[in-house]
Design goal:
By secondary structure, this protein is of the alpha/beta class. Helices cover 50% and strands 14% of the residues. The chain folds into 2 domains: 165 residues, Rossmann fold (3-Layer(aba) Sandwich), CATH 3.40.50.720; 119 residues, N-(1-d-carboxylethyl)-l-norvaline Dehydrogenase, domain 2. It is built from 13 helices and 9 strands. The strands form 2 sheets. Strands 3-2-1-4-5-6 form a 6-stranded parallel sheet, with helices on both faces. Strands 7-8-9 form a 3-stranded mixed sheet. α2 links the parallel β2 and β3. α8 crosses α13. The protein is globular and about 65 Å long. The chain starts with a strand and ends in a 5-residue tail after the last helix. The mean pLDDT is 96.
C-alpha cells in the first residue's frame, strides 16, 4: 500500500490528481496540500485526504508529485518549519512535473539528498498536452531519473497519461524544453499566418479549416485556431510561462554546444508579449503582439 502526495492543484495538477484518485490501486491513498482545501473539495469528497501543511503530507506520503510553476515554488514548499523536508522521517520520492530548467532539477536532487541524508530523492516528469490532455488523462509525460526511482513513480504517472523514461535526472526537462521550442514555433507561426491572411483579405476560418487537413496541421493548430479566428485570448496557458521554458531550452542548447536558429527569436516574441503587459493572457495573444508591431523598414 502506497500513500501518494500531490502538491500544486491548479489547472493541470487538479486534473492529474483527479485521475490518480479515480484509478488508484486498492489500498493506496491520495493526500493533497495546496493553498486551500476549498478548491479541491470535490476530490476530498471523492476520497482524497487533506494535509494542512507540506510537513504533514511528507509524514504520510511515499511519493509526492509537484505541479507548481517553477523550482522556486518547489523550494518554498520544501523549506521552513512546516515545509515538506521538516516532515521527512523515511525514504520519500519527489517527482517534479513542472516545466523547469534541467540543471535546476538536477541541482535540486543534490540539495534534497544532502539536507535529508539521502532519505529524499528528486526525479523529473514534465508533461505535455495542455489542459485538454490533463482533462482527458492523455498527457505525454517525459521522465528523467535513475531506473529504480522512476519505477516507483511510473505506475502513478500512467494513471494521468503516457509516461516514457528518457534518461537520467534532468532528461525529462530536456525533452520538455525541446517540446516547448516546437510548441512555441507553432504558436507563433500560426498567429503570424493568421495576421497575414486577414490583412490579405482571406477568410481566416476557411484558411484554418483547410490547413487542418493538410501537411501543416498540428494539435496546437487545432487547439489555437478558434482563438486566432475569434481573437479570443482567454487564458488556458499563460504566455508568461513560456519565457522560462524557452530560456531553459536556450540554456540546454548552449550546454550542448548547439547553435539555435529559432529559440532566440521565439523568446524575443514572448518577451515582447510580456513587456506589452499581456503575459497573463493565453499564448494566442502573440497574434495581437504581431498585429501591433510597427512595420520594419
Amino acid at each position: 500500500m502506497t500513500t501518494v502526495g500531490f502538491i500544486g492543484l491548479g489547472t493541470m495538477g487538479k486534473r492529474m490528481a483527479g485521475h490518480m484518485l479515480d484509478r488508484l490501486p486498492e489500498g493506496d491513498t491520495l493526500v493533497l496540500n495546496d493553498l486551500s482545501a476549498d478548491r479541491v473539495k470535490d476530490l476530498l469528497d471523492a476520497g482524497a485526504v487533506w494535509a494542512d501543511s507540506a510537513k504533514e503530507l511528507a509524514g504520510k506520503a511515499d511519493v509526492v508529485f509537484f505541479m507548481v510553476p517553477d523550482v522556486p515554488q518547489v523550494k518554498s514548499v520544501l523549506a521552513g518549519d512546516n515545509g515538506l523536508l521538516a516532515g521527512i522521517s523515511k525514504e520519500i520520492l519527489l517527482v517534479v512535473c513542472s516545466t523547469v530548467s534541467p540543471d535546476a532539477v538536477r541541482q535540486l536532487d543534490v540539495e534534497v539528498q544532502s539536507s535529508t541524508k539521502g532519505l529524499a530523492r528528486v526525479i523529473d516528469a514534465p508533461v505535455s498536452g495542455g489542459e485538454v490532455g490533463a482533462v482527458a488523462g492523455t498527457l505525454s509525460i517525459m521522465v528523467g531519473g535513475p531506473d529504480d526511482l522512476v519505477a516507483k513513480a511510473l505506475p502513478y504517472l500512467k494513471l494521468t497519461g503516457n509516461p516514457a523514461h528518457l534518461g537520467p535526472t534532468g532528461a525529462g526537462e530536456v525533452a520538455k524544453a525541446c517540446n516547448q521550442l516546437i510548441g512555441a514555433a507553432s504558436i507563433v507561426a500560426n498567429a503570424e499566418a493568421a495576421v497575414v491572411a486577414e490583412r490579405a483579405g482571406l477568410d481566416v476560418q476557411k484558411l484554418f479549416d483547410l490547413m487542418l487537413g493538410g501537411y501543416s496541421t498540428s494539435k496546437i493548430m487545432a487547439d489555437k485556431a478558434p482563438r486566432y479566428i475569434n481573437k479570443d485570448y482567454t487564458v488556458s496557458g499563460a504566455a508568461s510561462f513560456w519565457i522560462k521554458d524557452l530560456k531553459a531550452y536556450l540554456d540546454e542548447a548552449n550546454r550542448t554546444g548547439t547553435p539555435t536558429v529559432q529559440g532566440d527569436r521565439l523568446l524575443d516574441a514572448f518577451q515582447g508579449v510580456v513587456d506589452a503587459g499581456w503575459g497573463a493572457e493565453d499564448t494566442a495573444i502573440v497574434q495581437k503582439f504581431i498585429e501591433e508591431r510597427p512595420e520594419e523598414n
